[in-house]
Amino acid sequence: MQAILNYFWQICLLRVGPEKIPNRINFTIFICIIYLALQVIATAISRSDLTGTVMLMRIGFSFTAELTILYTLLTFKKQKHRLLGAYSALFGCNSIMLLLTMPINGMLLNLADGILLEFFTTLYVICLFWWFAIAGFIFHRAAHISLFQGIVIAISIELLVGYTTSIISQFMT
Predict the structure, then answer these.
(1) Ordered DSSP codes for 50-113
(2) DSSP label at 16?
(3) Which of 38, 62, 136, 167 has the smallest count of CB within 10 Å of its CB?
(4) For the whole model, what pTM was predicted?
(5) What is the spatial distance between Cα 107 and Cα 102, in angstroms, rounded to a whole number?
């Protein structure tokens, strides 16, 4: 397990790509379950204003959007054989980023205005841009597209999910 975590960390550092991740459905399902559990915890911490239904809808939509866009990209680029490894890399690295940002989100919710709040806000934004680089790197390596294109796709996914779920959330509350 430590070797797997280390490999995901190396992907987060943009040192290795998703090529050596096992292309097995059981492994991908395991990683997705860990990611979804962490995402529920992180969302509950950072968005305590959401009802359980809205929170699960947002997480489900985000998860489905990432799956669909990556599947479409790899199919279009004729790299579908890399699908399970790319999914595992995407959700494994996202799990690491969630673990890193959960304490930051906790601090952001509990700090009053001031220098510490600004520091943790900046730290969170740095992590967000780091995530764009990681996801873009995974798209780049899995689909044989440029790193810039991968980063644009990663940012587009976040914007799509954020915008769509906020609209849906307004109708559900």
Answers:
(1) S-HHHHHHHHHHHHHHHHHHHHHHHHHTT-GGGHHHHHHHHHHHHHHHHHHHHHHHHHHHHPPS
(2) S
(3) 167
(4) 0.89
(5) 9
